[in-house]
Each structure stands twice: as C-alpha cells, then as structure tokens.
Amino acid sequence: MAPTTYPPSEIYFFKELDEKVETYGKPFKLVQDVTILNTAAAKKALAASPIKLTGRLEYQACDDKVCYAPTKIPVSFDLTVK
Asked: Which of 20, 35, 51, 56 is most buried by its number of CB atoms within 10 A?
C-alpha cells in the first residue's frame, strides 16, 4: 500500500519543552491511494457495488495548554464503482 499523503505542516515551538513539532491548525485533507487487483474475486466484489473500505485514523490533538492522549478511531467509506 502506498503511504498516506499529508499536506505541508506548520512548525510549532513548545517553549516549555524546547521542542519543535509539526502541526495542523486548519482543516486539511489526507490522501490514500487504493489499488484494486485484477482478480476474479475482486471483479465479483466490484460487481456487487457498493464496496466498503475500512481503516483506522490515529491522531493526537493539542491546544495551547495541553496535548491530549493519542486516539484511534475507525473509519469506513462506501464506494460505488461505475
């Protein structure tokens, strides 16, 4: 699987920790390419559209005072192939 594509980040300097970290302060889009193999099983699944892609988003949110515990949430997408 190809790696997820992230937009350019902003660098935030935590004075208390003397540390620079990459951050996103505005809405952004992640891009993940998906490749479907040309197999009989894949063709059968695609013919029974929609198909469900599932995964997990792992992230950590911070504000100007605290960083919260890292979180993992399930995500899914229904795709119709035409």
From this structure: 51
Residue among 32, 35, 25 nearest 57 (CA): 32
Q: Per the domain annotation, does 62 fall within a domain?
A: yes
Half-sphere exposure of 71 (CA within 13 A, CB side): 8
First to last CA, the chain: 23
Within a domain: residue 3?
A: no
Contacts of 26 (CB under 8 A, 6+ apart): none
Q: How confident is the prediction for the chain on average, in pLDDT?
A: 88
Is 29 within a domain? Answer: yes
Structure tokens at 17: 């920790």
Phi-psi region of 41 (alpha: psi -120 to 50; beta: other; left: phi over 0): alpha
The distance between the two most distant Cα atoms of the chain, rounded to a whole number of Å, is 57
